[in-house]
Amino acid sequence: MSDLLAQLAHRIGDTHVLTDPQTIQPYLTDWRKRYRGKALAVLRPASTAEVAAIVRLCHDAGVSMVPQGGNTSLCGASVPDTLGNAVVISLSRLRQIRQVDPVNQTLTAEAGCTLVEVQVAAAQQQRLFPLSLASEGSCQIGGNLSTNAGGVQVLRYGNMRELTLGLEVVLPDGQIWDGLRGLRKDNTGYDLKHCFIGAEGTLGIITAATLKLFPRPLQQCTAWVALSGPEDALQLLGQLQQRFSDRLTAFELVSDVCLQLVTQHIPGSRSPLEAPSPWYALLELSDGAPDDRLAGDLLATLAESPVQDAAIAQSEQQARALWLLRESISEAQRLDGPSIKHDIALPVSAIPAFLQDTAALLQHAFPGVRLQVFGHLGDGNLHYNLSHTRPGNVDLFDDEAQANRIVYDQVAHYRGSISAEHGIGQLKRDTLPHYKSALELKLMHQLKASLDPKGLMNPGKVLV
Q: Which chain positions lie within coiled-coil regions (predicted)?
């Protein structure tokens, strides 16, 4: 392999072919510290042409490739396996905002741009790129596309599939597909970009994307409200949608268990309400009108809803503090100790019954289990996590397979999905065949074999 590494160094420069074990370790460990792999080298190309050169060399040598963005994957999709015969291709040097077209309402960014950098570039042109995630300071657009990221504003704007108009992709043999079109309508055959969005780098390497932009809202209203249960949350969601339509941009469900974790582990955090409640909703309204009626209209709606108490942000700083409570949940969970995580999607109407029935089954199987539930109620995406009440007690992991089976069987019963926005990666690869039809899996394997016949692109992820 020394000849290959020498050829790679000639293409992208010696300093961007990393082999020192200590230097490459961060690239080989996932954010949750659950997966640790090995690699021949970490490669850091600076352009699409350099990515293509790397892929051609690796393709000809029969060397597997693992594309990596910000390495914030929660399913182990962005790190190699333990065989040590793959290279990691980090896209972090592809950082150009190639174009912002405020008239066409589009932005073209390279895959290594962080989500925040894209948001800022849009804001500088008085536009909005609405994808918003807790990891937006470190996650990269290529990774957002590869996992079909959703975030908190899917309710109004959709996930990355809906936010993407075109892609540039390096195919497994090193060819470059230029599909960077800023068109809302293009009915010229198969929409190829959808093959790569959500594919987790198993069909090619996304190097750039043309994304949709929107007018920046001139008025926003953010509120944290107390609710007695998920049924009341659904009732409130319906009332808000009826009253505000698409001005309701976010509706997040948070259990009191999650709020307690945040106030316990995140310095400076506190509940915005005086009395605790079993459940909370964090909601946001946005409007293009500059008047100040939004808060008053929200108050009137809340007065006719099952809300028990509410805190409405009076400033941007207060709104940010409310969102920080929601965005800090994952970090608070990490600090609290191990947990079994599930990122699931359900029909919105089925969520109360799912929560009640699944909690009963888990409590029967694992007495004392603590459920840490939060997520995007407006689009049916729950982050359904299990832990013990005593931090550091990892006995539950001895029966992780049984716990997963209970949760996923319930998801299937309610005609949901075992992955909403985190992907499959390594974490759910072996589980997927139990909940995906044989025909769907056959078609996925056929697509993989067609585009990547040597099986070199991110092996061991998504498909068994």
A: none
